[in-house]
Predict the structure.
Amino acid sequence: MSLRIIRPGISTTLQDAGRRGYQAAGVPVSGAMDSNSMRLANILCGNDPGAVVLETTLHGAEWLVEEEQLIAFTGGGSSLLINNQPAPFNRAIRVRASSLLSLKPSPTGCRTYLAVSGGFKAKIDLKSSSTYKTASFGGYKGRALKSGDLLEWNHHKEPISIKMINSLALRGQNFSVAGWSIDLNTTGKEKNIRVFKGPEWDDFEDQTKKTIFTNSFSISNQSDRMGYRLTGSPLILLRKRELISTAVCMGTIQVTHEGNLVILMADAQTTGGYPRIAMVAAVDLPVCAQLRPGDKLHFSEISMDKAEDLYLEREKLLRQIQLAVSMKFNY
Amino acid sequence: MKGYRIYSLNEQSLTVEFGQEISPAVNDQVMALHHALQKQPFPGYIESVPAYTTLTVYYDLLMISGFNKKSNQSLSQHVFTLLSERIMLMEPVKQRAMPVLELPVCYDLSMAPDLPWVAEYCRLSIPEVIALHTRDIYRVYMIGFIPGFPYMGMLPPALEVPRKLRPALSVAAGSVALAGRQTGIYPFSIPGGWQIIGRTTYRLFDVSREPCCTLEVGQQIKFVPITLDQFKQQSRS
C-alpha cells in the first residue's frame, strides 16, 4: 500500500543521497537539498541513511498514509498535523492506516523530509532514485508530485524498524510518538554561511571583496533546487573577461552579469562560465537548504583545515547517532 | 608534464588547470588525466569532471581521512600531492583521429528563433550564417551544464555572438545554439541563454543506454542542413 497525494505541496520530489559518477556526462548530482535531515529521517525509521525520502518545500502538502506505517518528519519550513492533531518533527511516529498528514506553516526553515520504514519505491536512473526534473530522471515518473499520485513503499523492513514499531503501542490512538528524538537544528532566521574564496576572487574590486563579508544578503523568490538568487548590493568585477566554462557544484557562489549572487544548490549544472566569487563549506550546505525566500544571510571566511575538520566531525556525529539508535534497539 | 596548476574548489574537490587557452592539445591532457583516474581511481575518488582546460576531481573526505591520519597538512594538501604524482606519471597524449560525425540540423525559422537576430548582429544574410555554421568541422570539447550538452568549437570569428542578456524561459530539446566562439545543443528543454539557430533530430542522451551520452569529448562534428520536411520525417522514424 502507499501514500496518496491529496495536495502535493511545493516542488515535492523523491530524493536520495544523489547521483554521483555521471557529471562527466553533464548529469547533475541532485539528491536531498538538506542531506542531514534526509539521513536523520531515515535513521529515525531504522532505514539506511540514504534510503529514498520525500522532500517538500514550505507548507501546504496533504498526504494520506493508506496503511499503518512507521514514519518520521525532519527538516523545517512546516509543522505537522496528523488527522488534525499536532505531531512532532524529529521523532519516529507509528501511524494508523488512513492517517492524513498535513503540513502547516512554520516560522523557520524551508525543506521538510518524510521517511517511511522500508523507504519509498522510486524509479532508478543512473544508479540513483533522486528526481531530476529537467531530464525526467528518478523519483516518481521523473517529476514533482501532483494530486492523485500514489507512492509505493518497500515492504521489506529492517529488523530494527520492526522493533521500533513494536515499541510504539497505538492503544486506540491515531498515532503513537517515540519517547526519544534526534535534532541537529539547522533552521533559524539570520544565518552565517561559511565560505572559501572562489577561484575568480581576484577578479572582483577591493570594495566588493569587503562588502561580501560585511553586508547581508536575502534569499529572493527566484530560488529553487538549482540555485538561490540573492538580493543585496551588487558585486562589481574589477576585470571583465570571457571565462572558459569549468566545473561548478552545489555551494558554488557565482556572480551574474548584473552583479547578483547565485548560490548553486542540489540540481546545479555541472559546469558554468560565471565568475565564482566564493564556495560554501560543505558543513553549511544543509543550513543553506533550509533558507527560505526573505531570509537573510551573511558570509564569513573559513580555512580549508577548519572546514575539513567540521565536515569530518559532522559525518562522525551522524554515524554515532545511527550507532546509538542501533544500540538502543539492540543491534 | 608541466605548465599545469592545481587549486581547491572546496574541501571536497580540486581542479587541475592545464592551460588558459582553449586548444585540442590542452583538452587532450584534461581527458588523459580523466581517463587515467577512471581507470585507476585513488581511494576516496568519487568522480572527475572534464571541461575545456580543466579537470575537477571530487573526493570523499571521510575516506581520504581514513587512509591518512590528519597531521600538520590538510587533507586537500594530501590529495594535491596525490594528483601531482599522477600527472607526472601521465604518458604523452597520442592524437587519435576520430571519425567525423554528421549531425542533421534544420535551420527553418520555426525552429530557429534567434537566427534573424544572429544574422543581423553578424551583418550576414541568413543563408550566409547557415553556410558558415555548416562549413567547418567542430571538436566536442566537453559535455556539461545539463545531461549530454556538448560544447563544440571553435566557431568562425564571423559567427561570434554574445549570450542573451535575459535567458529564454524555455529552449526546445534538440536546439542548436551559439555563444561566443562555441556551438552547443540542448538535449532537454530548459531555460537557456544561448542564441538558437536550428534544431537537430539527433538524440544526444539516452538514459537507458551505456554510455548514456552519445557524443564523446574529442569527437569531430559537422552540421548538415536539412529541410523542415526532412526534419519531420527523421523525427518520426
Q: What stands out?
A: Chain A has a mean pLDDT of 94. Chain A has two domains: 2-185, 191-309. Helices of chain A lie at 35-44, 159-167, 206-214, 285-289, 304-328. The two ends of chain A are 28 Å apart (CA to CA).
